[in-house]
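[User]
Um, tokens okay?
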Amino acid sequence: MSGGHPAAAALRVAVVGGGIAGSALALLLARRGARVVLFDDGRRRELVVGESLVPAAVPLLRRLGAEADAAALGVRKPGVSFVWSGADRASFTFARFAPAVPAYAYNVPRPAFDEALLARALAAGVVPVRAAARLEPAAAGAGGPELRLAPESLAAAPALDGRQPDLIVDASGRARRAARALGIGARVGPRRDVAHFAHFAGCRWDDEPGQVVIGRAAAGWTWCIPLRERLSIGIVVGQEDARRLGRAPADRLAAAIARDARLSAIAGDARRVTGVATYANYQLVSTRGHGAGWVMVGDAFGFVDPMLSPGVFLALHSAALAARALDPVLTGRAPASPRAVERALAPYARTMAGTLRAWADLVEYLYDGRLMALVRAGRGWLGARPGPVKRRAQHHIERHVALQASGVATTSRYSRGLLRFLGRHGVRDVDPGDLAIR
């Protein structure tokens, strides 16, 4: 192993799950000299939600050496457009806010990109275990771990030499294996939405190549994510509205496209080239994300909502934060005991919980109409006696919204405070309720 640590002193880690968060953290820890095994049964969905990245993911991809994979598999994403009504359309390019914000992001086919990142982790020395891990509570004991690998899972990983790891990383996504084993609950958001999406070929695309388009529908919202030679089209609706669209996911997606004039113009003559994927329970955050000898990363810790595309960034960010928090243990400044690992990871858990809250707040500004109301009010304000002072003020506001939505400064106290103030006092005569997503 690299990193200069003697084998006996190396942190022994079992990562449960080979998605973005698990592969990224496994790679970062292996580079630091940890002995990492990664449990992954190799099963993959045909489609995985989270195909569009935010700009703040790009520096993390570079750190992992994975930007080349995103570029080879996906397309460059220059910005995002929001289509809320015939009169309410706002298009943003990331380059406008550079260098404070990376000038681009990527849209990627997730199964292939996930596999590429996993391959990088294995090339760094992570040992694969081609099985799904089962976790169970550890026997109670002073200073001992809370969680352990079940006997059959431990036996499936010979690299652990029959001994429980120093750290178990739950990167199992929505399966939340650690939470289920330990009875840890979750805070569920107010929405009960379901998403259906698929890839289409032969679409009519008049927008900028790579530009993601988010649209408000009669019920819920829609996405169009350009990929290589195909377009990902998705709908996010309440469960009752989904049932009104049809019984099967394919019927629901087809009906939603047919009823939406904009989507129908894009995909009316296109052909669906994949199955229709379904996701639900978007807004869910674990009430506890770490403990003695274990930690959650990525969706296992929490996922806010697909709106604004934070999922891959949050997975990568959680991996980077957890790796940094473990530095005292990795360098030998702290023992690799379960309680020492728990103490080291406490700041990580607090930071991730705060980050998830900040993203949830920002997403809510779109759902309840305040963000688009600010856009409409700002245009009206600029249109009445425009001048350099007004333009500078408007750019300042848009820059701080971009800093949050790009992932660069989602938790910024000033940026969040500015948006809260404007959400209360800056919408002028515009009623946010008229622009809310039902």
Notes: The mean pLDDT is 94.
